[in-house]
């Protein structure tokens, strides 16, 4: 099984350890992991700001780079949601994309739906309390959990996979799936609203008594992390793959 | 009327200056979202109802012309006069014409976002007709001479202390008496006078039923009923998308409307109007005002399914932290942020960007409008219409170029990682990222690409 890592541009530059943990986690399950070096940005910032030409070019480029792999896996719910659900706005007729689209997965989805994992590659003991940050695109576009607005049976992918970790205590913040306020370029277009939302979100995570905010979207964690650092708070954001590989405590 | 020049980001930043008031606003409206959840949870068929409502509206919009004609024919059979208005001006002229013909001096109005959209109040006042809004929230914002900040709860941005001050000034209530019951009684006594002395009543329309030619108005205060029962003339103004085909469809919507809007099983009054009372007149004004253009647009026609419940506002984390007054269009929040830009992208373009694309609005919407996707599609129109600030446009074009040239993007990333740690804090703390209280991320030594390449070399 040839799996290509799709590492979002900002993760490549700012969170290389998250990308490496993703690779190691997959390798731990015996997956043949590749990282196509020609990849750049998926084009979500262009799409979200109305640059359809740029977004379309980015979608074509992405398809060309990844089309020959068995699967594409990414540690970002938002970027995965963009390539999986919004590329059809631009290249719905592209045959290569049509063939690739069902093989694109966010990492937790890939572990649960393709590898169907029931244990971690090596046992992880993480004797801490974590508060789950359910990011919006993972939630409402990829269906990672039951959104609080919909009257459907409760489920949560993140909670389910964290059950495989020993010693962990899992909490949900009040308003369990409210947006953290990052929103891509929204964070700098409307910085005051963005930070106000993030401050509220961090406070709700803190109120659970957790030492860590755990999520599957590095962008939300970056935004909340910036607020936490500015306010010198003790709580720490962690990407879920950092816990699943047993690197979490060191971060 | 609303100021078209409001920029959401700037207005929201100003609102957030008073963080305590902003927190209160957020919690007050979040409470309504919670009440909606509690009500929705009690109906095992909630998601089926949403799907059904979506389908009924989608079907109706697919043959709107037929249903509108059927509605008109049936209304006229009931003796109602039906008028058609292509735009806001025509609507206002028609209403004024009806009132002027009967020498009306005072009009009592129940809640109608359409008349806000058309700017009816200032138009009639210029023509010497006194207009009294009779919904309590609408009356409050009318006395304050400001637009409603929410389509269902027009005065939700105000605390009871502010209303007490306003009523003391305008209605002569006791200074400092903030008791909501006392204040409501004072408003009630004042409004009762107006109901008794009005010459005509105007209502909005929640649903217009093609099969019967009747209109349905949902209120909680009974003001629409008093406003139509006392004066001899009833004018009902409706957008042309308010049609539903049959009476049997109404229950689907009334079950969704109040639960979605305010977390009640139903509105206190669900009033059906079919004909004028003996000796009276009933008029229905059907207004287009840009709706046909939206209907003809593949990306946005779904927004015409809206039943104006306001649930998208209550759930919107940006709306709750910025108030309706931060949006340039008369309808704020997610639904307003597609309807406003549909009307005029140059004036209302900033609204489409007042959104993190979290998608909560699309999930609470009782008629399943793809609201957050529409906002992204409106940004495409904003980009194409050239409404983006030059600096932002340049940034996007640079990003577009770098996306196609990864080696340059990698080089840029490397420069960022080396330079940011040595730049003094004084230079970055005024950036949009850092200004409101958010530190820059720590810069790692190596990018993942560099780490991966080193790892592959070691392996081989």
TrEMBL record, chain A:
Ranges for domain Cysteine-rich come to 3-84, 130-224
Q: Which InterPro entries match?
A: Cys_rich_dom
Protein name in the entry: (Fe-S)-binding protein
Automatic annotation (TrEMBL), chain B:
Q: Which InterPro entries does this one have?
A: 4Fe4S_Fe-S-bd, 4Fe4S_Fe_S_CS, FTHF_cligase-like_sf, Helical_ferredxn, LUD_dom, LutB/LldF, NagB/RpiA_transferase-like
| Range of residues in the leader sequence | none
Q: Which UniProt keywords apply?
A: 4Fe-4S, Electron transport, Iron, Iron-sulfur, Metal-binding, Repeat, Transport
4Fe-4S ferredoxin-type domain spans which residues? 296-326, 346-374
Q: Where is this region: Disordered?
A: 431-460
Q: Does the keyword Cytoplasm apply?
A: no
Q: Name one Pfam family in it.
A: LUD_dom
Tell me the protein's name.
Lactate utilization protein B
Q: Which organism is it from?
A: Vogesella aquatica
């Amino acid at each position: 099984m040839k799996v290509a890592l799709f590492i979002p541009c900002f993760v490549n530059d700012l969170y290389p350890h998250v990308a490496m943990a993703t690779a190691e986690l997959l390798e731990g399950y015996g997956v043949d992991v590749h990282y196509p070096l020609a990849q750049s940005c998926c084009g979500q910032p262009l799409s979200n700001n109305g640059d359809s030409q740029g977004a379309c070019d980015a979608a074509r480029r992405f398809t060309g780079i990844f089309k020959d792999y068995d699967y594409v896996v990414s540690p970002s719910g938002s970027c995965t949601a963009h390539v999986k659900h919004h590329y059809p706005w631009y290249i719905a007729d592209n045959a290569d994309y049509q063939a690739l689209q069902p093989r694109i997965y966010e990492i937790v989805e890939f572990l649960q739906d393709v590898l169907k994992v029931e244990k971690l590659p090596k046992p992880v003991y993480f004797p801490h309390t974590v508060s789950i940050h359910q990011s919006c695109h993972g939630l409402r576009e990829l269906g990672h959990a039951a959104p609080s607005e919909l009257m459907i049976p409760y489920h949560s992918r993140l909670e389910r996979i964290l059950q495989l970790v020993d010693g962990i205590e899992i909490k949900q913040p009040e308003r369990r799936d409210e947006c953290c306020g990052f929103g891509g370029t929204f964070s700098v277009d409307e910085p005051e609203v963005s930070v106000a939302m993030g401050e509220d979100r961090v406070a709700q995570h803190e109120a659970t008594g957790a030492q860590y905010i755990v999520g599957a979207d590095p962008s939300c964690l970056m935004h909340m992390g910036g607020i936490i650092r500015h306010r010198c708070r003790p709580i720490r954001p962690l990407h879920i793959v950092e816990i699943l590989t047993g690197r979490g405590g060191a971060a | 009327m609303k100021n078209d020049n409001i920029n959401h980001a700037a207005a929201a930043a100003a609102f957030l200056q008073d963080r305590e008031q902003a927190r209160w606003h957020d919690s007050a409206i979040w409470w309504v979202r919670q009440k909606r959840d509690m009500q929705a949870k009690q109906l095992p068929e909630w998601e089926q109802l949403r799907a059904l409502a979506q389908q009924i509206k989608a079907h109706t919009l697919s043959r709107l012309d037929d249903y509108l004609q059927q509605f008109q024919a049936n209304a006229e059979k009931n003796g109602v006069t039906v008028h058609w208005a292509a735009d806001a001006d025509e609507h206002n002229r028609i209403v004024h014409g009806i009132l002027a013909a009967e020498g009306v001096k005072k009009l009592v109005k129940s809640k109608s976002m359409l008349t806000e959209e058309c700017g009816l109040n200032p138009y009639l006042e210029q023509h010497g007709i006194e207009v009294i809004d009779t919904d309590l929230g609408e009356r409050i914002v009318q006395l304050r001479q400001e637009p409603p900040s929410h389509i269902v709860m027009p005065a939700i941005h105000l605390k009871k202390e502010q209303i007490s001050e306003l009523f003391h000034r305008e209605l002569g209530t006791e200074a400092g008496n903030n008791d909501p019951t006392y204040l409501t009684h004072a408003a009630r006594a004042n409004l009762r006078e107006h109901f008794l002395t009005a010459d005509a009543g105007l209502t909005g329309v929640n649903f217009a039923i093609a099969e019967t030619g009747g209109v349905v108005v949902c209120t909680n205060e009974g003001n629409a009923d008093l406003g139509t029962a006392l004066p001899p003339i009833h004018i009902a103004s409706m957008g042309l998308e308010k049609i539903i085909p049959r009476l049997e469809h109404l229950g689907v919507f009334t079950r969704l409307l109040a639960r979605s809007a305010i977390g009640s099983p139903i509105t206190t009054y669900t009033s059906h109007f079919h004909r004028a009372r003996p000796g009276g007149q009933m008029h229905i004004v059907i207004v287009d005002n840009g709706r046909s253009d939206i209907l003809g647009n593949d990306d946005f026609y779904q927004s015409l399914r809206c039943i104006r419940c306001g649930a998208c506002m209550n759930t919107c984390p940006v709306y709750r932290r910025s108030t309706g007054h931060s949006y340039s269009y008369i309808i704020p929040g997610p639904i307003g942020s597609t309807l406003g830009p549909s009307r005029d992208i140059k004036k209302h373009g900033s609204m489409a960007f007042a959104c993190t694309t979290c998608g909560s609005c699309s999930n609470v919407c009782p008629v399943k409008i793809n609201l957050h996707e529409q906002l992204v599609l409106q940004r495409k129109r904003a980009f194409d219409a050239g409404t983006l600030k030059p600096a932002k446009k340049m940034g996007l074009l640079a990003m577009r170029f770098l996306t196609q040239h990864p080696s340059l993007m990698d080089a840029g990333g490397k420069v960022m990682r080396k330079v940011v740690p040595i730049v003094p804090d004084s230079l970055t703390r005024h950036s949009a990222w850092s200004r409101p209280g958010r530190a820059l991320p720590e810069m790692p030594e190596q990018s993942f690409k560099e780490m991966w390449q080193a790892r592959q070399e070691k392996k081989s």
